[in-house]
Amino acid sequence: MSIRFLQLAWRNLWRNYRRTFITMAAIAFGYAMLMFVACLMAGLRWQMIENGTRLLLSQIEVHDPGYYPNRPIQKTIGGQNGTDVAALLSAITADPRVEAAAPRVYGYGMVSAGDRSYGVELLGIDPARERRVTALHSQIVKGTYLSEGMPKSVAMGDKLASTIRIRVGSEIVVLTQAADGSMGNDLYTVGGIFHTGLDDMDRSLVVMPVSSLQDLLNMPHGRIHEVGIKLYDIAGATAVAADLAARLGKTPAVRVMAWPELAPDLADYVQFNRGVTFVLFFIFFLVAVIGIMNTMLMAVFERTRELGMLMALGMRPAQVIGLIVAEAAGLVCASLILGGAIGAPLLWYLQAHGLDLGGKTGGVVTIAGVVVGRLWYGRQDFPVYAQAALGLSITALLSALYPAWRAAHFRPTEAMRKV
Amino acid sequence: MYWKKNFVVLCVAITILAASPPARTDDDQSARQTVERIAHLLVAKSSIATLTMQISNDNGKHDLSMKVWSAGGEDVLLRILTPPIEANTAVLKIGNDVWYYLPKTNRTVKVPSAMTMNTWMGSDFTVDDLVKESFLTRDYTISNSFHGDRGDVAVDEYTLTPKSDAAVVYGKIVLQVRQDNQMPAWQRYYDEDGKLVRELTFSDYKIMGGRLIPTRLLMRPTDKAGAQTTIVYDDITFDATITDGTFAVNNLPR
Amino acid sequence: MSGFLLIARISWRNLWRNPRGTLLTALALGLGLALLLISLGLLDGGHEQTVADGVRLGPGDVVIQAKGYQDSGTQDLLLAAPVVTSVEEFLQTPPTKAILRGMSARLLATGLLSSATNASSVAIVGVIPQAERSVSLVPERIIEGTYLSSNKAAGVVIGVELARKLGVKVGSKVVLMTQVVRASAAADKAGTGGEMKSTLLRVTGIFRTGLQAFDAGVIDLPLSVAQALLGVEDHQVTQIALVLEREGDSQMLADQLRERLSGQPVEVLTWRESMPMLAQILHLDHSFSYVMNVVVLTMVGLGILNTILMRVLERRYEFGVCAALGLRPLQFAAMIIGESLALTSISLTLGLVLGLGINHYFATTGLDFRWIFGHSLPPALVFDPILYSRLSPSRITSSVSVVFIMATLISLYPAFKAAQTELPSSLKVL
């Protein structure tokens, strides 16, 4: 292909700028829309995972190898002697992909106020660290969040609070089976009441500072059950978990699990969602492709006369086809760039600000144990963007090729007669 | 709760009997009588007992001593004596209701019945055993399955097979009774596939409260290595007079 | 008027002077509509299925229970026998019977299920097996053994997680212990009720729903066995769960039942009230669909604009000739609009045929996800891997109307441009 040829192709495009623009618009908008849809869908998936791992379940969790699935309180990290918690936490946060890590202790027991008692799950957290890993602190609806400075102040779910008829400031007795088998019990004050929207948590969870729970359980402060981890980018959770497992090694012996292993329900739902969005995306892709195909076909068919003339002037059929293809290629590139330019601000807006679903959802929603909010955020899905671009390009080129091929095989005089 | 487990052991232990020697016979009826008597060995209209309990599992050992008042099988008061840190902790069962007294916080709490069924209470022993009297003779058909020597001890063994609609989880229970003093030696619980699930061993036969009883009971579940509970009776009085008001919630704090 | 008709005929013939182009365009637009219909059908079908599944793992489309049960959930709150009879009678009447797909009377309680090696607290559901089959999903999710067969035999069906925890398999013995119901305040005072009772059961089947909590906590047993255990009289149950042929009838049936049972201490709830979470999931799905529809419509609209603009552009010479022959701007506009209306009609027809056809396939055979994923699907999907399409007539009419109106409006701009055809520049040949 000589430079002349390419120049001719380029000039051809701009001779009939209206036609070129219309074709470009078709491709550009099609592409922009596809990116928009891909962004939204990726966002929904990401959001579900994010939300599922922001309350109790974390993106990655570290436990003693014997802890799952039955979760006996004796299986603390490092066994009976516990471990150097601070060192463990630093080892974890040393990984640049980890945003924060927080220690947790669990127990089971009974909470009693007056003559009302209820079976509960007890959770001990480090309030400052936990803030950066989960969003429990933002679910407090009455009273205050926990603080290490108030060891006897606990938080509980709103449904639990109403079942045993307590308010902020009430005194409660918490009873549990301590690590040594004795009956651990103590008095606490209800400092805060939370509402998560998840029945299990609101109905039967009591949260207190980790050292308070360790004291209640007669456990030394080096014994914890779990480290909850939050990453900067949840997409790589499984990989990071594997790396952490390798790095943390044997002292103490741990098992590191990423959220798909911890919450198979959620993983299932995400898969399902992926399936649905794949089908939908495919449909959109078809719509876009049809539009482009149609446009390109028409654009070239309309030039049958012109092509006939070119051949009458001596251009060989192969060169005619080559010319069309070169034009189409140039057109497609320019269109995709245009599409990207149109789409980029839209995509940025989606990721930064989200789509407000407003009154349509009427509040928070729970799917498979996950709370989903009103704002629907997008998320860039570059692999899909690239694939879409490729798909559209191929379609456009093929669509240009067909009529060009046909035109090239007419006899020049016939071609010129087409009006 | 550990002492729930042990109340269980108590009740289970209460299924040991025999003050009188059984006649050696193939007759079901006689076997039934033997088992019945063993089941009531530690049972009376009322009793007061002082005992120690040691719980071992892979977390270590936990030793307690306690005093238990019981009347009519319905009302039970259990008070911990040692260690000092747990002393005065009490459990009161009246009919279907259960209360705990917690000396550390000086509070009495009522335990919701749903809680008495929850597994967090410890799954070593089925809570089922706690609240349901084990009617061994009612729920099982009993036959004398062995009469002779095991090693150098002459024993009788009785196989208890659950009746078809009895609400018991076991496939069978085998009870070994020594021929010389008619004391139970062990009781083994099997699941339906014939696998041994747990074993209760009796020893230290002494005369207490006017009866010959095994004063050391050891319960061991077979699927948890190192887990076992031992009860040793220091003293027991049968048909004791229990002061009125013992089984009352407001009597709990002391 | 005749001028109008003439233009109409010209418009039509214009279309067919270039049959290939016209057909191609019509096909393109038609496909756009078809795809819109298909995606709507799949989305609607998807969330109808979510609702249907959710409803069938819960208290059904409509549920009747004792007043206050929804809030407290205490097993002592039961439906009085006369209420149950009244409801059953009502449900037998022909108009109601026609819309009813299944009805199940259930006794709900909590208890402790023990095996030889372990014990776990469970949610007890006492059912009449035949009735439950038409209402609940559990009978369809049995992975080992069989569902309950008779209302008498002491069988129980448990979830796979529970089976694992208790170390039992099909045929194993388990003992269920629960608290006898305190049927009334008087009985409570008298000391009856509240004691613990146990019964022997045999595991007849193990199910897997994929929902962790369900598989670890829920057990189904025959109603009569549950009633005997809980000390409840024969006709008393906790709730009557109804599943309808069409979810849309829920509200109406609920209202009818409320009226019939007014004065009784009962509550009649639709699934939106008994499972507010599910209702909210639906809201979210609706929003999702809404956004998707807007996107598809936009793309279709752009396609239409594109096409018509092209047609106008490419025919400048022809328009030049028309103008030279005396066609006035307004007539130009009318001609273009006429063409586009005709084209749209053809497209819509094609699209409807194609769309409804494919939709019918998806509605009957469904879209099988396994075909998309191959082996990477997890084994225990909560959701049915086959998605069935559901397209309601109102959806169809609204889609068609929107596309039609959109096409018409879009054609106004090109019509306007055509009307501005200038002589003599448009008569240039190349």
Task: Write up what this structure looks like.
The complex is a heterotrimer of chains A (419), B (254) and C (430). Chain A contains 14 helices and 14 strands. The radius of gyration of chain A is 31 Å and the shape is elongated. Chain B is mainly beta and 254 residues long. In chain B, 15% of the residues lie in helices and 46% in strands. Chain B has a 13-stranded antiparallel sheet. Chain B is globular and about 55 Å long. The longest helix of chain C has 39 residues. In chain C, the strands form 2 sheets. Chain C has a 6-stranded mixed beta barrel. A two-stranded antiparallel ribbon of chain C has the order 11-12. Chain C has 17 helices and 12 strands. Chain C is 56% helix and 18% strand. Chain C has 430 residues and is an alpha+beta fold. Classes of the chains: A alpha+beta (419), B mainly beta (254), C alpha+beta (430). Chains in contact: A-B, A-C, B-C. At the A-C interface, helix 2, helix 10 and strand 12 of A face helix 2, helix 13 and helix 16 of C.
What radius of gyration of chain A results from the CA coordinates?
A: 31 Å
Biggest beta sheet attributes of chain C: 6 strands, mixed, barrel
- The H/E string of chain A reads HHEHEEHEEHEEHEHEHEHHHHEEEEHH
The low-pLDDT segments of chain A are 359-363
Give the oligomeric state of the chains in this entry, treating copies of one chain as homo and distinct chains as hetero.
Answer: heterotrimer
User: What share of residues are in beta strands of chain A?
Assistant: 15-25%
Q: How many strand segments of chain C? A: 12
Quickly give the structural class of chain A. Answer: alpha+beta
Contiguous low-pLDDT stretches of chain C (5 residues minimum) are 185-192
Distance between the first and last residues' Cα of chain A: 30 Å
The ordered H/E elements of chain C are HHEHHHEEHEEHEHEHEHEHEHHHHEHEH
Main pleated sheet of chain A: 6 strands, mixed, barrel
Count of discrete alpha- or pi-helical segments spanning 4 or more residues of chain C: 17
- Helical amount of chain C: 55-70%
